[in-house]
Amino acid sequence: MSDIKEKVRFGFTVNKDRQIDYDANSKKLASTVIIAEPSLNLCISCGTCAATCTAAQFTDFSLRRLILLVRRGEVSGLENEVTKCMLCGKCQLVCPRGVNTRNLILQIHKALKNTVL
Amino acid sequence: MSRHVAVIGAGAAGLEASSALASMGFRVTLVEKEDSTGGHVKDWHALFPNRRPGAEVLDSLRKNLDPGVNLVTGKPVSAIKPNGKTFFVESGNDWQTEADAVLMATGFSLFDARKKEEYGYRIYDNVITSADLEAAFSAGKVTMKNGEIPKRIGFVHCVGSRDEKAGNIYCSKVCCVTAVKQAIEIKEFLPGTEVFCFYMDLRMFGRHYEELYKEAQEKYNVQFIRGRLSESTEDHNGKVILKVEDTLLGKPLKIGVDMLVLMAGMESPSGTRQLRDMLHLAKDNDNFLIPSDAHLSANISEIPGLFYAGTCTGPKNIADTLADARSAALAVAKYLKS
Known about the structure:
Chain A has 117 residues and is mostly helical. Helix content of chain A is 50%, strand content 2%. A five-stranded parallel beta sheet of chain B has the order 5-2-1-9-20, with helices on one face. Chain B has a five-stranded parallel beta sheet with strand order 11-18-12-13-14.
């Protein structure tokens, strides 16, 4: 039986759609976080935070990316993402728009725990 | 008899240059193709970055137009004919003037958004241009075709600009900040409406423009998504579905909007191109007129006695257009007095 299965498996698979379906995604996390830390709105995606980030040297953590994922409602896997941050605050020192990055991460963390998405 | 200057086009540049020339003692004929002065400014409800009414600037330009200027409206200039040391400026067979110098202030035309067929202008009900939105603000009514209030509006930057497929490789300069201004106006006019801007780069080149952009983010929660619209479609509810790449996340993104605003760029008008070809002036890829030196003599053409002012030499905002017009008036004066 397993032989037959192996024989008819031609190696084709269907990938999961990578497209961000904005209308289908929940924006609950974004709206909660924006109220808790309004400076989120000031981000211009320059990437200075991610460039200076110690965690980013050893993991794929990027605050720039995290903010975009929150905004777009791409929330799956974010719980694990925020734990990579060590809250050292270097990003806050370099942010040219004055985003309160540490509180932002704490608020995302909190909202992920408390918000039904 | 004082020397005579023919100024072609009574938009911002033509009005300002005419007044400057008249105040220097020249005899000025200002010829305009439309029945009224003001060019594109008269179609603009409010101006960036301080959002003052366009009418306020236009009224001032009209009021300050030197009474000595001979204003001729409703006469599209069809020919400029060099005639020894003078020029004949003609509108068909029914109007003509002879001038010692000619100042072209022929401005720009808006990109015809129908050419970007994949965006759906004049195909889908709720796709409009930035100019249409200004008209809607002037009328005090921003609604969808069915009369309902749009709950989500998208702005597409660079429509007909930075696009070889549209035939225009250049940046039209003013559309980015116009989109930001209009996004803020939408949020004030319809506070419950979500606004998204789809951009390739945000070129906030002028003073207080960056501040306006920050205000749009901070105060109005306007969302900026970096990615150029590939195509829009209309669903069965009349919603406009957009396909862009969220380039900062590296993923394709699909989003529905109730209304789509296309930021139409600036082009060299067909009339200007005809005059250029008739005068055998050099042709640039972007079709705007070429000054003899982009830095040092931005208002001087290849032909002695023929000058340029305003957006006929490339996209400009109003303040730069007016400064360019005054600079052109000085160049004309220097030529006529030498």
